[in-house]
Design brief:
Radius of gyration: 21 Å
Largest sheet: 3 strands, antiparallel
CATH topology of the largest domain: Rubrerythrin, domain 2
Strand order of the largest sheet: 2-1-3
Distance between the termini: 54 Å
Structural class: alpha+beta
Helix content: 25-40%
Strand content: 15-25%
CATH class of the largest domain: Mainly Beta
CATH architecture of the largest domain: Single Sheet
Order of helices and strands: HEEEHH
Number of helices: 3
C-alpha cells in the first residue's frame, strides 16, 4: 500500500517513539489510536489512510514547555531581586 511505503520511508525522530494520536477515519467513521506520524495515521478497522487527526499527545507538549520556561523566568526575576508586581504592570 502506498501509505505504508511513505511512512516507512520517512521515520519519525526517536523523540516521538512513544507518542500516539487518535485519528477518525473518513471512510468508516472509526476512531483509532495510532503511533504519531506527521504524514497521518492508518485506520485500524478498514486500513485506510483517509483519516483526520482528532487528538495527539504531541499537541500538548509545547504548551507545557512554554509554561515551564515562563515559570523559570519568574523564578530568575525573583532571585535577582526584581519586584514581580512591577514587571506585571509594565507588561
Amino acid at each position: 500500500m502506498e501509505g505504508d511505503r511513505q511512512l516507512a520511508e520517512m521515520p519519525m525522530p526517536d523523540d516521538y517513539a512513544d507518542t500516539f494520536m487518535t485519528v477518525a477515519c473518513n471512510d468508516c467513521q472509526w476512531k483509532s489510536r495510532v503511533k504519531f506520524h506527521i504524514l497521518g495515521g492508518k485506520c485500524c478497522k478498514c486500513r485506510s489512510y483517509n483519516t483526520s487527526r482528532v487528538e495527539a499527545e504531541a499537541d500538548v507538549e509545547p504548551e507545557v514547555e512554554e509554561e515551564k520556561e515562563e515559570s523559570e523566568q519568574n523564578e530568575e526575576n525573583l532571585s535577582e531581586g526584581e519586584n514581580v508586581s512591577e514587571i506585571e504592570e509594565i507588561e
